[in-house]
Amino acid sequence: MPATLIRMFWLAVPAPYVCTYFLCKYARPSTQQITLISCFSLLLLGVSLATLSTLNFSLGLIIGLLACPLTFAPLASCRKAFAAPFNLLLYILSPPVALLAAGYIWKGGNLRDAVQAAGDIVSLASLSWAVHGTWTMVVVCLLWWPAWFIAQVSLCAHMYMAL
Predict the structure, then answer these.
(1) Residue 148: other Cβ atoms inside 10 A
(2) pLDDT class of 136 with cuts at 50, 70, 90
(3) Are 7 and 141 in contact (CB under 8 A)?
(4) SS (H, E, C) the chain
(5) Mean pLDDT of all residues in 85-109
(6) For residue 5, is pLDDT > 70?
(7) What are 73-85's pLDDT values in tens digits?
(8) Burial zone of 156 (CB within 10 Å; 0-12 exposed, 13-18 middle, 19+ buried)
(9) Total domain count for the chain?
(10) Over the chain, what is the mean pLDDT?
(11) pLDDT for the residue numbered 2
């Protein structure tokens, strides 16, 4: 499991840049189209988090707090001075990094233990989905991660078009 997490992390780092490159090179969207994609992604995130908060408030609160900076991606892309630091902030709050940080906090110590603990967290979340029917991995993989990806692509596309 840790090898899969490491591959997942290394694929998540360049994926928004690769997607932005191909999007801007071949589709050539306007600024308005990129903003609309970001707005619809945030609308879906907000509606889903509101629904999730009625069912499982603690999960909705944690995902909402981790996804809160995604709402500022369009504002950060308007100012060149904020775009690069905000890009770094989005990577720090990405799902793989948050999973690694949770593993580091859970086990403590060196990075190798954190990767193993992150693998344990994913295994336990999968087990809790099968046994108890919890929605943690579903929310992370189908709600938070796509919203993070679209916010990152939106920010990178605004930076790419400004060049």
Answers:
(1) 27
(2) confident
(3) no
(4) CHHHHHHHHHHHCCHHHHHHHHHHHHHCCCHHHHHHHHHHHHHHHHHHHHHHHHHCHHHHHHHHHHHHHHHHHHHHHHCHHHHHHHHHHHHHCCHHHHHHHHHHHHHCCCHHHHHHHHHHHHHHHHHHHHHCCCCHHHHHHHHHHHHHHHHHHHHHHHHHHHC
(5) 85
(6) no
(7) 877 777 777 888 8
(8) buried
(9) 1
(10) 86
(11) 59
Q: Which pLDDT value is given to residue 3?
A: 67
Give residue 39's pLDDT band: very low, low, confident or very high (50, 70, 90).
Answer: very high
Could you tell me the pTM of the whole model? 0.88
Q: 119 is written with which tokens?
A: 């693998």
* Of residues 79, 72, 55, 84, the one with CA closest to residue 147: 72
User: Which string of b and e fits 83-112 if b means at least 16 CB within 10 Å?
Assistant: beebbeebeebbbbebbbeebbeebeeeee
Distance CA 17, CA 97 (A): 17
Domain membership of residue 37 as a residue range: 2-162
Amino acid residing at 4: T
